[in-house]
Amino acid sequence: MAKLMKIRRDDVCGGCATTIVAGTSAYWLRDSRQVWCLPCHETPDATAPPEEQAGTAGASALAEYHRRSERELARTEKAIKADAEWRDQVVADRPVLGWVARATTPKPTTGPESQATRAWKVGAEGEQRVAEVLADVDGITILHDRAVPGSKANIDHIVVGHAGIYVIDAKKYKGRIEVRDKGGLLSSDRRLYVAGRDRTKLVEAMRWQIDVVENALPPSFAHVPVIGVLCLVAAEWSLIPRPIVLDGVTALWPGRLPKFVTTNTDGVWMDGEAVGQSLAAALPPAG
Fold this sequence. Notes:
13 strands; 36% helix; single chain; alpha+beta; 287 residues
């Protein structure tokens, strides 16, 4: 969020890189932890990553839900209209048999949306929940709902901290979380299950998203670690939950995200704002 305030010390505008003298009114952008002068914030540069470039969590999923919902409603309304016309015509053509056909033929009605359509709305809700738990975390830059050039797919969230880049895929699934080893006596094949269904493909799909982010980084940031995170919203974890690591991807719950993206265990320290700016330009908002 942006807050208009008088800055206490000299700083540099995140948009035009000019010096802002202490005591000057400027905008403080909490997500990117930058100061922006009034002209830059009120007429933001399209290539800059202020809060306008952070994206909106779940925007593209919600837009797809509305498109599908409207198409379903339009098909239903068309069927209801065609049915009404048929009922009038069949009685006009054959009064007796027409009334029988009309009375014995069910009318199309507006029913609940299909599961395939509702899934997009549920997906958007999962992304919004992740955005909520990250909103007040200090020291990170957050990018939501990022488009992948040359693809219809998107990346739900990218979090840039001082210790690395976290690519987060949010899934709002209900049911118990389990790890089952489907390997034999001499081999291990650990798989992720949610509500009894094998969801290991979610872990496998994270590899592609990680590759996208790694390829979007300029050579100067090639050393920055990129970590895959699968955030399972609304799932049932054990009484004493612990994150699950499968093939280098960490599966966890929303409440654990703030600690996970701010813990620096590898001793890496980087300029998160600069990395965030680079990624914001390479992977624009999808919604």
